[in-house]
Amino acid sequence: MTDLESRVRRLEDRAAIEDLVIRYFLAADDNDLAALGSTFAPDAEFLMGGGFSGGSDRASIVNFIREDRATMGVTVHTQNFTLLTFHDDDHAAGVVGAHLELARGGTTVYGAVRYLDEYVRAEEGWQIKRRELAVVHVGPWEDVANSLTTDLRSRWPGQKPTAADLPR
Q1: Separation of alpha carbons 113 and 147, rounded Å
Q2: Rounded CA separation 76/71 (Å)
Q3: C-beta separation of 50 from 166 below 8 A
Q4: I want to staple 60 with a disulfide (CB 3.0 to 4.6 A). Which of 11, 50, 55, 116 is the partner?
């Protein structure tokens, strides 16, 4: 492959991973679990802040998300940025900044998160190999006005406020 071909392929890979991130968000918002599952590698891992595991393979991740979504209403995932680092032609890492709006616990929850991702190229194209959701702040609308002014920035409905995952 020529240098120009390599550079063009890298640009195409960046675009494909950006599309992968958007496909994940759209599938989550549309409650399309088949499409959501297809964004993950078969042996993917999904972690929530604090080391909580949402699964260590595609089927368990989809099942975890199915069960979690059963407690939610409408969701809106908004991508703010994606910063990619390529390890080689078939492996990359990403930091995806996003805002979430979720109907949960009888209220609208708003927050900022980062997805700390690892990606792998497969026959189907780029897929998420590892995804860790790290909370910057989250809480019901009435708490958002002060959610960045306290150490307890993670305020999920029905749970005791806790420290956020970021900054660490």
Answers
A1: 13
A2: 15
A3: no
A4: 55
